[in-house]
Each structure stands twice: as C-alpha cells, then as structure tokens.
Amino acid sequence: MDDDALLAEQRAYYRAAAPEYDRPYAEYEALQQLLAVVDDLPIAGDVLELACGTGQWTPGLAARARSVTAVDAATEVLTLARARTTSSTVQFIEADLFQWQPPRRYDTVFFAFWLSHVPPTRLPDFWNTVSAALAPGGKAIFIDDGPAAAAYEEVLTNQPTPAALRRLDDGSQYRIVKVFHDAQTLTDDLTALGWTVQIQTKAGNFIGIAEPPTTAG
Amino acid sequence: MDDDALLAEQRAYYRAAAPEYDRPYAEYEALQQLLAVVDDLPIAGDVLELACGTGQWTPGLAARARSVTAVDAATEVLTLARARTTSSTVQFIEADLFQWQPPRRYDTVFFAFWLSHVPPTRLPDFWNTVSAALAPGGKAIFIDDGPAAAAYEEVLTNQPTPAALRRLDDGSQYRIVKVFHDAQTLTDDLTALGWTVQIQTKAGNFIGIAEPPTTAG
C-alpha cells in the first residue's frame, strides 16, 4: 500500500468516523443534562441508591440527602464510585440486589438504569423489596431507558428474558437483561400493584416518582 | 439460559466493563485538560489551523486570535466543527492538506494531532509548507501523541509507512498513518531543517513551538 492509497484511506476514516470521534463529548454532555434532573426530584432524608454502578448519580444524591447508602454487586464499579464520591455521608455496600435485604428503611429509594436490568418475572418481588425499604411517606425515584433506547443496543431475540448483547473493547461479549419499559405500561403495572406513580419522559428516558401501597408500608 | 445464569453474566459484564463504562467522562476530562494548554501558548494574530477535525481546538484558538482559518479534508468533520464554532472570526476551508497551498501568510500555524498523520517521507515538504505559511516572526504550534500513545492504538507492523488500524462501531476498519514522534528526535529533525524549536511533554502528549529558518521566511 503506497502513501497515496494510505492517505486516501485515512481521509475516508475521518469522514466515516466523524460522529464517533466526538462521542465522548456527546455522551458526557447528554449524561450531564440527565444528571441535572436530580435537582428537580424529591430526593430527601436518608437515601438508598440501588445499583449505584460507577457512582455517576451518587454525588448529586449526596448533595441533597442527609445520607446515601449506595449498593452494587460489582467490586470494580464500586471502586470507581468510591473514587468519585468524597462525601462523608455516603456509604457503599457490595451486595447482589436479588439477595440483599435492606437493614432499615429510607426516605428515598433511588435507582437509575437499574429497572431495565431486572428480569420481568422478578419485578413484583423487586417492587416489594423497594416498598419494604421505604419509611412512611417515602418515595421511590427511578430513571431508565425508554423504548427508543433499543436502537442503541444489540437486542437479542428469542430469549426467555428480554436481553441484549454488550461488547467490550477486548472483543468479549456478555448477555445482560434489558427491558425497555414504556411509561404507560409501567404506570399501569405499578398501579395494579397498589402504587401511586407519576412517570415523565425526557429525551428517550423516563423518570418515575412512586409511593408504595400503604398496606405494604 | 435461565434468569440466574443471565443475571450472573450481567454481573460479570458490569465487573469487566467498569473502566470502559466511565470512559466518556475520562476522555472528556483528559481532553478538556489538554485543550486548556491553548491559554499558555503564544497564539496570536491571524491563525491558520491545519486539520481542524471536528473543531475541538478551534473555539479556544478563536478566543485568542484576530482570525482563524481552519482547514480539513473531511466534509463530515467540518460540519461538526462549524456547529461547535460560533465565532464570526472563524472561516472553514475544505481541502486536502497535501495539495492545498495557503493563499496568504499567518501569525500562527496551529495543528493538533495532525503531525502524527503525515507520512515521514512527506515531512520535509510539510514543514516547508508551514514555513511558507508563516508571516515574519510567526510561529508554528503543534500538539500530538508521544510514544506512550502507541499503547492505545492497533499499530500495524511491516508497513512501508508507520500506520495503525482504526475500527468504527459498524465493524469497518481503516488504516491510517500514525507516527509517534518523540520530542527529542523531532527537535533534532526540525533543528536540522533550520527551525528553532522548543518541545515540552505533558501527560503523554508533546507541545511544540517552532520558528522557521529565516531564509525560508
């Protein structure tokens, strides 16, 4: 391959790569915009954050809470979350959320981009766990991908549980649970379980605020 | 695959994905830090920016220049650069830098992450073009990857020209020119061509300020 051909391919690369080349900006800015919604949500008192991941949401919660207890199953993401969160009112717990039982009740139970990773058959139990974790008058607040986000995933078909394929830089592939809830169905399902719920949508995401059935509280 | 196995794979994904998951933050912040060096460089007067790409550097140059003329070969990156740059003192030109001849002289010729994409056999001509584009007393200012950056590229071996492979999300692959200049060799080479040059390194990158041979000016 001579230099002219290589330079032609180089030009072709930069033409084709333009949208991906700027992606760190775009992703950072889109996430910053979404993170800002925390300021408009009724985050209060002692907050339980489920599936905190790398702690992208944790500092924003800590700024508005008396305390934050942030739980995740993955050691590696918790290491990053701890590095990102310097507040002394934040405590991290490593635990499988499908096994873990909250040791106390909280004023707010918050989970961002976790509901879509809960298998549908486990949703009733999950909502019961959230309900049991809420103090009287407490609220569940949740943010996740709406149906439009499916366009950005490799959705797997013919699976017993809705799933998607994720790829890492080293070429390794993982199947994950991924349910793209739509706001109306989720509202109906939660209402049927006795919850009082309001869900708004924002740029392909939904943001829910829900109070559990009082009999379960 | 039952839900337990799927959930185990999901946990494995998030453990393995932790560093990549936060990459938009890391890349954004590293680039913001590097972009800030513009404030410490002798950007002045009428500036020519070679290979402006998606215009990441252009607004910072415009803030310190009387005018910026930003040139790139790729239509698609120029569209993004125009969207990013609102200053009325910036003009964009679409041209192949290996063909284009500057129509006038400039006080500063700036190029970030372009030198590494120039084939070594074309470097003497490239530096002559830069020299011819500089007004008396003008300076070339350039930023690029040092040798440490090779660790982040798929370097192609046994090529007549130093090259790397770049992959896009759709699986397509492109060979590009990629020369990881080290500061000392580059200083020696430019000095041999009659330039006066100072190169500093900063977190894997180098930042050069160079004045052309007066006989060429």
Automatic annotation (TrEMBL), chains A, B:
Pfam family, one: Methyltransf_25
Keyword terms of this UniProt record: Transferase
GO biological process assignments: antibiotic biosynthetic process
Keyword Membrane: no
Annotated GO MF terms: methyltransferase activity
Keyword Transferase: yes
Protein name: Methyltransferase domain-containing protein
Native species: Streptomyces zinciresistens K42
